[in-house]
Amino acid sequence: MSRLLIHFRGQPFELFPNETLLAGLERQGAALPAFCRTGVCQTCVLRATSGRPPARSQVGLQDSWLEQGCFLACQCVPEQPLEVELCDAVGCFDSRVARVEPLSPDVLRVELEAPAALAYRAGQYLHVEREGGVARPYSLASVPGSPRLELHVRRIAGGAMSAWFASALGEPVRLRGPFGECFHFDQEPERPLLLAGSGTGLAPLLGIVRAALAAGHRGPIHLYHGSASVEGLYLRDELASLAASAPNLRVTCSVLSAAASVEASRPGCAVLAQPLDRLILDDPLDFSACRVYLCGNPDLVARLRQRVYLSGAPRSRIHCDPFVAPAATA
């Protein structure tokens, strides 16, 4: 099979048969933003100025990007010659770390200065890049109009980004985005909302809940947060306070230890010793009427997505944000 010729930024690149555009460009020295390399994070979005990218490389992109010929380089095995460039539909903004606060032994709340030109919806995510070119995606727990962007960062020993954040107060960062389909729909004030996440998957869910309550959402809102231990549950007091101020909000946390769950419960924020997926499947909400948001561990998100779909939730109203790890590169 003959090699395909691709032009990126006016320069020619040959791709091997069945090679992705991302792999081929990197093999020949081109630098592209990329993170998960599985089509989830959307970091490697490019735009075709000539030729048609394969449909598989456009799955999950928003309609406005599709209209401009955008696609994901990590999912693109071209079927014809293409001329491509970086997608200017993705906004880039300068910001600065304004506050860093520990929420638990393993989670930091990081607040960034909100650029005036950044338009986002609560629950979407941004790619945050620090000096040295290290970048990671983080979901937004803040709501539009806030002077700061709120991130929940899981601390990883030796982590190139999370360890840096711990002492990064005042440091500049570069933002790209926003990305993602997990956000509140203002035009559905009566629709039941089912939100479930593990670990820092709470961040986008909290943003969605905050946005829904600020918009006067009247339908029931059931928020679930799961962790293997009580120490992994954070912001329980804030969640309990939210539930106390909103009669339509119910907050339930999942851990594996029965003794710990009793001690950790708050009025308005129950902590139960049951698996997260079991709690959700036992929820009395009519899944066929719900809008569902699933965030956090990729395996859990995939499992829950299948189960809520089989329980009646329409695919069009199931929104997922799996938190993927950086892909290893050769």
Detailed description of the structure:
A hairpin with a 5-residue loop joins strand 8 and strand 9 (135-139). The protein is of the alpha/beta class and 330 residues long. The chain starts with a strand and ends in an 8-residue tail after the last strand. It is built from eight helices and 17 strands. It has helices at residues 21-27, 63-67, 162-165, 202-214, 236-245, 258-264, 276-281, 298-310; strands at 4-8, 11-15, 45-50, 70-72, 82-86, 91-104, 107-113, 125-129, 135-139, 148-154, 172-179, 193-198, 221-226, 249-254, 269-272, 291-296, 318-322. The protein folds into three domains: 4-86, Ubiquitin-like (UB roll) (Roll); 91-179, Elongation Factor Tu (Ef-tu), domain 3 (Beta Barrel), CATH 2.40.30.10; 193-322, Rossmann fold (3-Layer(aba) Sandwich). The model has no long low-confidence stretch (mean pLDDT 89). The strands form three sheets. A six-stranded antiparallel β-sheet has the order 9-8-11-6-7-10. A six-stranded parallel β-sheet has the order 15-14-13-12-16-17, sandwiched between helices.
Task: Report a brief summary of the structure.
By secondary structure, this protein is of the alpha/beta class. It is built from 8 helices and 17 strands.
Jot down its keywords:
330 residues; Elongation Factor Tu (Ef-tu), domain 3; Ubiquitin-like (UB roll); Rossmann fold; globular; 8 helices; single chain; alpha/beta
